[in-house]
Specification:
- The chain is mainly alpha-helical.
- It is 71% helix and 2% strand.
- Strands 1-2 form a two-stranded antiparallel ribbon.
- The chain is globular, with a radius of gyration of 19 Å.
- The two termini are 38 Å apart.
Length: 273
Amino acid sequence: MSSLINSVNPWLVAVGLNTILLGLAWIAPKKLLTPAGLFHAWFLSILIWVTLGWQGYAVVMFYFLVGSGVTRIGMAQKEAEGIAEKRSGARGPENVWGSALTGALCALGVGLINSGFLVPSSQFLVPNTSATLSTSLQSLLLLGYVASFSTKLADTTASEVGKAYGKSTFLITTLQPVPRGTEGAISLEGTLAGIVASVAIAFVGWGVGLIDLLGVAWCVLAAFIATNLESVIGATLQSKYTWLTNEVVNIFNTLIGAIAAVLLAWTWISIIK
C-alpha cells in the first residue's frame, strides 16, 4: 500500500487528500479548526506530506487529533472557571503555526536534502562514522521533527489535564500553590499525563520509521525539559512582554524540544564513537 502511495505524485496525493479532509472538517458539527485555521492546516499538511510522506503525516495527525481531544477534557468546568482555551478549543492559524512551525521547518529541511538543495554531495563523510553528512543531518532533522510534536503534545496534555484534574497546582519557579490555569503552574496529574503523551507520539514516530528506539528516549526527555522550561517562561516572562503570547511561547517550546533532542542524540553519538 505504501509503495503504491509513494509511486503517485506526492503533490497530487497531498492536495487531494487534504482537500477531502478539509471538506469533511468544514461540514463537521464539532469544529476543531476555525475557517482560517482550516486553510493553514491544509497548507501545513500538504507541506508535511510532500516532504516526509505518510510517515510524517501520521505524526502530525496523531498530534492534532489527540491534542484536540485532550483540550476538550473537562471543557464545561474549565469554561466555568475561565481557564478554557478560547473558541472552545477550535484552532486558528496562530495555533497551527505556534504548534507546528518548528516541525514544518524540520520537514522542509529534510525535503531540501532529498531534493539535493541542501548538502547535495553524498561524498562528505561524518568524522568517525560511515554516514554521510546529508544522511546524518536528515536523521537529526527527523528527530527534531518528532521531538517538536512530542514536546507540544506533552505541553498541551499536561496543561489541559492539569486544569481539569490537577488537585494541587504549584508555580514552577517558587513551588507556591496557585490556582489552576495560572501561567507557569504545574501539577502531578498534568506532568504525568504529559509524559505519557510524549511517549505515545514518540512511539508513533518510531512505528512509522522516522526515528529509532533511542530516538524515542531523546524525544521523551527533550519534551520533559522543554515543557518545564516553557512553564518557567510562563511564570517569569510572559506577563512582562505583550508580544510573548501563548502562540509565541509554543514556538519557543517546540524549538527547545527539537534542539534538546538533537543535542542529546549528537552528544550520545560523540560519546559512543
